[in-house]
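The authors assume throughout that readers already know how a fold can be written as discrete tokens. Each protein is reduced to its one-letter sequence and a matching series of backbone shape codes. I therefore recommend that a typical entry be quoted early in the introduction. For illustration, here is how one protein appears when written out as sequence plus structure tokens:
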Amino acid sequence: MKIDLSGKTALVTGSTAGIGYAIAKGLVAAGAEVVLNGRGKARVDEASAKLAKEVSEGKVRGIAADVSTATGCKELLAALPEVDILINNAGIFEPKNFFKIPDEDWSRFFEVNVMSGVRLSRGYLPGMLKRNWGRIVFISSESALNIPTEMIHYGTTKTAQLAISRGLAKLTRGTGVTVNAVLPGPTMSEGVEGFVKDLAKQNGQSEAEAASQFVKQHRPSSLLQRFASTGEIANMVVYVSSKEASATNGAALRAEGGIVETIA
């Protein structure tokens, strides 16, 4: 199967690094014109230049906007009124004892992880429905199904994304538009690399040992038995963004290495 997204414009939020950048790279390689997004212009410009160099024939540009705020989403929608593919990837995570998570953190996590996707989907979905083609993908997490005790606030927002994506999919009934969620498991993105480095320091281990120990201790049901690469997650997202994925709608697609111990 050859995925060809020529003529399609894709927006990937939170895509200056990590899973978002890998998704953007995959979409560009498939022929889409990709818009990178991040909060700071310098970082967005740097990531856009890097991606343009890595995929020399690709069409890449960037828009700096803070999608964790209503104002930032409004600015992004004004700068880019229409897209064919929306990847709601922007998100934050932080291990924290439940009893020490203040209301402000709950609100911040909800604004970044949930409301960014709500606002942008509200802005872009009507155009997709009018054109009778579009793809919206929420980057959720296996933590949506397997709430981690070390970051309950994060898991809650990821569960909310599944509810939103399923609800929006119902609005696309009988059209060429789909809305899905992809659920990565532990993935070795730049942010996670920092987390693993800190763990290694705390426990007097090598980074490889710390990563392996984390999976064994916190995700013991993993069949993969390692962190996934950002590219492995991107492959699933590129597929569900494609024309070939036309019968996949309202789904929660797992790319979590078999951590979740349910059949359905």
In short: The longest strand covers residues 177-184. Residues 103-131 form the longest helix (29 residues).
